[in-house]
Amino acid sequence: MKLARYLILLGALLAPVVITVSAQAAVANPPAAAVEAKTYKTAVIVSNRAGKAYDDKVASLEDYVAAQVTDLGISVISRETATQAVAGLDHAANAADTALAQGTSAVRLAQTLGADYLLQVTLTGFDADARKIDAYGVQAVNVTGTLRVTYKILDGATGASLTADTVKVSKLVQQGEASVAVQADMLDELLAEAAKKVAVSLKARLDAGRIAAPSAAQGLVTVMIQTEVADLTIPDIRIGVENTVSISESKLKVLLSASIEVDGVTVGTAPGEITVKPGLSKLRITREGFKPWERTVNFIKGQKLSVALEMSDEGYARWKDSTAFLNGLKNGAKLTDGEVKVLEGKAKAFEQSGFKVDTKDAPAVTVNNHSLFGL
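The structure assignment produced for this chain is given below.
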């Protein structure tokens, strides 16, 4: 049977931002009104085992479950992250089922998604029983629809099943005659009702402490991000003996500071290190005067990323103003001590504005031949 699979990544946000579901602490004698704040980062996997005829209903069940879980206090992030995570696994067509059937595969999928838990929701069956009735000369049809949905929670660190439940919902509709349209409308209503029951059951287990919240720092990795200006360089300018200007053919990269967002949350400033959950997340780098840079990145331990930002038209105009002091320099020109001081001051102001010339690959600096940048 071909299965329809849709995945949504729920709550894959990064420290220090947390997603909390208030749950009564499960202790012998809790203080009055004692409530424990817990964080749940969960990937929801919705599939259909009721028959191919209901493949097109999986998306609806996905939306209903997402809405209900959101009401529990869990933030819902776009499907793209989860979809790309599955596509990156071996045998992607059956990756979700394989991952849920095998503990090691479940752990791998959870790590790729950056999820602490996997919530599998399955449409297991739908029956519509139509019975004709004739009461006092009036003929009608009673249609009873019954829908069954199961769910289970898997530990993203071990792949073990933590809890599971089955919900069953029914609806009776009386009509003049049985019709496919009536059954379709009934199924949509039952899917919505089943999603509510799944949320109620899940909330009860959260409140009872059946699903312990992981450590806030569990499984986090450190990633280094460096940002530079795309397609623009600065010449290696030296001040030599008797204040002689030397303009090398070497071109130096220009690094710059920028804001780092992961899954829509600002987590730091580049260049620098950030601490994130491993796996796929949406990385966005922004700086005024530059076009936003966005990619889906698979974060791993010790990763180093170099991001080249492209200037906007307004940013390029400001760049030309900021580097105008270099345009009048000529190779071999001799400057006075005062002119050197002014030039060095402008270079310092340029770097203090958020730009830094990368001189690590430039020739060594000597006493009589120092760089205008990186002083």
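Interim note for the steering committee: The chain has two domains: 5-124+151-163+181-207, 221-371. The radius of gyration is 30 Å.
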